[in-house]
Design brief:
2 copies of one chain form a homodimer. By secondary structure, chain A is an alpha/beta fold. Chain A has one domain: Rossmann fold (3-Layer(aba) Sandwich), CATH 3.40.50. The first copy, chain A, is 39% helix and 11% strand. Chain A is built from 8 helices and 5 strands; from the N terminus they run βαβαβααβααβαα. In chain A, helix 1 packs parallel to helix 2, helix 1 packs across helix 7 and helix 7 packs across helix 8. The first copy, chain A, starts with a strand and ends in a 10-residue tail after the last helix. Chains A and B meet through helix 4 and helix 6 of A and helix 4 and helix 6 of B.
Chain lengths: 229, 229
């Protein structure tokens, strides 16, 4: 096993999966999805679908119990509605954005690192892929998406696994349209991915991630395949 | 809430608990224990007992599913016996020690950080205590116990939680007898703690941790209270 992809079933992590399969072939790649109590399980269905598309082994773990104390708007049990104010406004008001999930990327990478290192058989370095990109970390909206965070958690994971596991965040300095540009070249099956904050048969087209996604495809002069019925 | 103690029910983490309660009082401290598939649950009983002694809230989480691929000798499902060779011999033979559990401290700290940050209500910095000490990291036997690891994971946790959670490893540069020296001054209830690799009514007195523990008390000219029936 050469690469573990933290797969949310969304656009960014599926592009990571496409990259890793292109580099290592499907037999050397696995996907890991973490259920953390998110509003709906629609994205996990997409994670399964893209794993099947690429013919890679897929694993799921449940960390929802850890987020019981949190009132993040991303969580099903939250009393908060999804805010329509900008990240800058939310940071000014609450010192965090309403969709921040406590240490989510740190936890997911640590879970994947522990799992990946259990496979170690004496000769391989495992790469752990995370699909964060520069739009997520802009203005420190999501503090666990920037290069400083990735550098620190990568160092912790390298040291803590006898240098056998390392973190790869190939899009940390790219924006979402550049991720899509790369994914289109790799024929990533975007029709199978899910980015919308809501569930349903088709994306809502109105929430923040739907708008970001639409803009990323528009910048590449392509219609989002997930919107073609 | 001011402090979260990662409690194994053993000597080191219980001394952390004593320190934190001394600093912040019991109403501001909680303990978190992680079941990861260890050989026996005896130590979790001790974790509950010391939380009760200090009158702090205690939480337990289960991460055992992540360690299914691992053959660490610390795990109940392992086919490995506990080795009697030295850490240096084990490292030379396998590039790891047989009792290394993949990225255990990184995972536990990440779980506790996610949980702790969920309580955030706008004004507190939470300290996350881990009872690693210098004997654990000597010769890099356990790579996730040294100052370089603690510095890296602390930085990741600080960045990834908007600087609201930080890691405290008060014994990272002390040896076990120095930990005991401090704990004796704090009246830490060592009779309630459990360090032995085996379960049973009393510690075996023969395994590596029993021997380390006995030496630490002997260096302080004290009989281990857990051995007094």
């Amino acid at each position: 096993m050469k690469a573990v992809i933290l797969s949310s079933g969304g656009l960014d992590s599926t592009t990571c999966l496409g990259l890793a399969v292109d580099k290592y072939s499907s037999t050397n790649v696995i996907t890991v999805s973490i259920f953390y109590g998110q509003r709906h399980e629609r994205e996990l269905q997409s994670a399964r679908a893209v794993a099947e598309h690429y013919d890679v082994k897929h694993f799921e773990f449940n960390a929802a119990a850890l987020f019981q104390p949190s009132d993040s708007a991303m969580l099903k049990h939250s009393t908060q509605a999804l805010e329509h104010s900008t990240y800058a406004q939310q940071l000014a008001a609450h010192n965090k954005v309403s969709t921040y999930v406590p240490f989510r990327n740190g936890l997911m990478l640590s879970m994947a690192a522990a799992f990946a290192d259990g496979f170690y058989d004496g000769d391989e370095l495992v790469e752990l892929y995370l699909g964060v990109h520069a739009d997520d970390s802009a203005g420190r909206a999501y503090p666990d998406c920037g290069t400083d965070f990735i550098d620190a958690i990568n160092r912790a994971i390298e040291i803590g696994t006898y240098e056998r596991v390392k973190v790869i965040a190939p899009f940390v300095s790219l924006n979402k349209s550049q991720v899509v540009e790369l994914g289109l070249k790799l024929n990533v099956p975007y029709r199978l991915t899910w980015s919308c904050y809501d569930d349903g048969d088709t994306p809502c087209g109105k929430c923040a991630t739907c708008l970001d996604r639409a803009a990323a495809f528009a910048a590449n002069n392509v219609v989002d395949p997930a919107l073609i019925i």
